[in-house]
């Protein structure tokens, strides 16, 4: 393995300062595998469906607890 001190060269990610940071960011963005339009659309649909499912579930639980409180304690919440 070559010692970095011997070569005197640094890779883009090893430069110091803000320019080195930005060079590293650019290098990492090149490694990203971006989703296709179809993958993005289907993932977005799944996220919306799961959010709607949980919202409905929380609403049902909340309504059930409210009905239970009204029945047990005889209170009304406006």
Automatic annotation (TrEMBL):
Keywords recorded for this protein, A-Z: Cell membrane, Membrane, Protein transport, Translocation, Transmembrane, Transmembrane helix, Transport
Membrane topology: Single-pass membrane protein
Subunit structure: Component of the Sec protein translocase complex. Heterotrimer consisting of SecY, SecE and SecG subunits. The heterotrimers can form oligomers, although 1 heterotrimer is thought to be able to translocate proteins. Interacts with the ribosome. Interacts with SecDF, and other proteins may be involved. Interacts with SecA.
Gene name linked to the record: secE
One GO term (biological process): intracellular protein transmembrane transport
GO CC annotations on file: plasma membrane
Main location: membrane
Entry's transmembrane regions: 45-69
Family statement: Belongs to the SecE/SEC61-gamma family.
Domain of life: Bacteria
Entry-linked InterPro entries: SecE_bac (IPR005807), SecE_sf (IPR038379), Translocase_SecE/Sec61-g (IPR001901)
Function: Essential subunit of the Sec protein translocation channel SecYEG. Clamps together the 2 halves of SecY. May contact the channel plug during translocation.
Subcellular location(s) per record: Cell membrane; Membrane
Pfam families linked to this entry: SecE (PF00584)
Stored Gene3D superfamilies: Preprotein translocase secy subunit (1.20.5.1030)
NCBIfam families the record matches: secE_bact (TIGR00964)
Native organism taxonomy: Bacteria, Bacillati, Bacillota, Clostridia, Peptostreptococcales
PANTHER family, A to Z: PROTEIN TRANSLOCASE SUBUNIT SECE
GO molecular function: protein transmembrane transporter activity
Protein name: Protein translocase subunit SecE
């Amino acid at each position: 393995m070559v010692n970095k001190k011997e070569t005197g060269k640094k890779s883009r990610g090893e430069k110091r300062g803000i320019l080195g940071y930005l060079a590293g960011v650019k290098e990492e963005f090149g490694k990203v595998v971006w989703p296709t339009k179809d993958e993005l659309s289907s993932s977005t649909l799944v996220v919306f469906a799961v959010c709607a499912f949980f919202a409905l579930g929380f609403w049902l639980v909340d309504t059930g607890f409210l009905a239970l409180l009204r029945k047990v304690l005889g209170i009304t919440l406006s």
